[in-house]
Structure prediction request, 311 residues.
Amino acid sequence: MGRILGALAAAAMLVACTGEAPGTAKEKAAAPATGAAVSAASGKGPALWAVKDADTTIYLFGTIHMLPEGTQWLMPPIAKAFDASDTLVLEVLGTNDAKVTTPIILKMGYTPGLPPLAERVPADDRAELAAAITHAGVPGPALDAMETWLATMSLSTARIQKLGYGIEGGVEYQLSTRAAAQRKRIEGLETMTEQLGFFDTLPEAEQRTLLVNSLDDITDIDAVIKSAVKSWQAGDVDAVAELLEDDTRDSPGLAKRLLTDRNLNWANWIEKRLETTPGIVFMAVGTGHLAGKDSVQSMLEAKGLKVERLN
Prediction:
């Protein structure tokens, strides 16, 4: 299971940054052949927390960037907290403007003279790579031109989209639309360059490992995603944490880069916001950042702040 989730996290981050997989046509995700949009699990929906002081409340909500359209997750406690907020805070902004995203991708994700993608994986994995490329429908030459991290993200994103998961069904897209309708302020924690830089600066060996780990059979990928979404919908933070632990056990460097370091940055941001800016904030970040021993909440509690689970 851990082999799959790292690549899926990479793909999800790419979608969070760009709204699509480079090298593919941006398409509205169709309903997956194996089932319709995911129905809500019993209970009060995905987990919601709050941290507050006398004049500031910050809600913490874990997201999934790509979902089938119509997936049920905006339960009353979540909607109530969101509607009461004056500001929506996301990981990154500007993801739907190709004039912004394309130059960044071209600058960071392409280097002249790269070997073909097939030569960047062991010979034993080349048949799996070819099958994944065929399933994704991404032109091989387009992937060959990309740095390994971007090729991995693009390939994984396209495969996930084939299962019916898309940005339009994702939590950030839905919350941004709702925030715009309510004329809320929308802020970002990171820039697009910062987010993609986490992968662009990975050593090539780690990039190639991430690529190999993304080549699982699509049936296995489908099962892992469905399990993760089900746990998230049910507010089962322990199950999400277990998935993360499985995934990061063999990649501590990647986990530190993608989770631990960023969680600390965001905990510092929350602490400063509480000290300086009154108001009500709805902070929505990838659900993996709000689970496990190095979660944002754990880091806030280490600072002496009280974090309350609301549902």
